[in-house]
Design goal:
The structure holds two protein chains of two kinds. In chain A, 37% of the residues are buried. In chain A, strand 7 and strand 8 form a beta hairpin. By secondary structure, chain A is mainly β. In chain A, 0% of the residues lie in helices and 47% in strands. By secondary structure, chain B is mainly β. In chain B, the strands form three sheets. In chain B, strands 2, 5, 6, 10, 11 and 12 form a six-stranded mixed beta sheet that branches. A four-stranded antiparallel beta sheet of chain B has the order 3-9-8-7, with no helix packed on it. In chain B, strands 1-4 form a two-stranded antiparallel sheet. In chain B, a hairpin with a 5-residue loop joins strand 7 and strand 8. Chain B is globular, with a radius of gyration of 14 Å. Classes of the chains: A mainly beta, B mainly beta.
């Protein structure tokens, strides 16, 4: 079974530029998550989708971050414009069914973003 | 709301020695508990989880964790570590209701010395 795919793996941009990350979850997984992992910290949830609807985006900085999951499968996360403090690893995860808290989240390898 | 505290940011041990990675949590509701492992340049992988039943849970590679409700802890242990266990370990909690998000601790970097 293929895992969660993310691209690119690494990205270096200058501040005020825009960047986009892509995630393809495990086939059949209804729930998709984007996390931000700053160096030395644990992952922090940015946004959670159930199919193509947003369940929780309370920690997403909406003035610069946006995310979509138009067809309930792939997802993109965008930052526009980027700030130095956005340097982090962006992790995508998916799970089978949000309605069960027992659901296991499977993580992709992440995209390491460096903002100069 | 939940929070997780991992008491040690780094733990160096010698190969074949025992290790304990400490995790304490705070929550106003009952929670599920998880340990994830992150090997260098890889994503997080689920190591083990406590959902209900026996408070002692085990992983396939020799780790175990015990849920202690009175002390709100979920410490991870292994009696004899290997070089391949070098990684960062994250403790996480999630509320019992389905929409509750996964909340992670800061992580503990386990370094195994030969």
């Amino acid at each position: 079974e293929a895992g969660v795919a993310q691209s690119p793996r690494y990205k270096i941009i200058e501040k005020r530029q825009s960047v986009a990350f892509w995630c393809n979850p495990i086939s059949g997984h209804a729930t998709l998550y984007w996390y931000q992992q700053i160096l030395g910290q644990g992952p922090k949830l940015l946004i959670q989708f159930q199919n193509n609807g947003v369940v929780d985006d309370s920690q997403l900085p909406k003035d610069r971050f946006s995310a979509e999951r138009l067809k309930g499968v792939d997802s993109t996360l965008k930052i526009q414009p980027a700030k130095l403090e956005d340097s982090a690893v962006y992790l995508c995860a998916s799970s089978l069914d949000l309605r069960g808290a027992r659901d296991t989240q499977y993580f992709g390898p992440g995209t390491r973003l460096t903002v100069l | 709301a939940q929070s997780v505290t991992q008491l040690d940011s780094q733990v160096p041990v010698f190969e074949e020695a025992p290790v304990e990675l400490r995790c304490n949590y705070s929550s106003s509701v009952s929670v599920y508990l998880f340990w994830y492992v992150q090997y260098p340049n890889q994503g997080l992988q689920l190591l083990l989880k406590y959902l209900s039943g026996s408070t002692l849970v085990e992983s396939i590679n020799g780790f175990e964790a015990e849920f202690n409700k009175s002390q709100t802890s979920f410490h991870l242990r292994k009696p004899s570590v290997h070089i391949s266990d070098t990684a960062e370990y994250f403790c996480a909690v999630r509320g019992l209701q389905g929409a509750q998000k996964l909340v992670f601790g800061q992580g503990t970097r386990l370094t195994i010395n030969p």
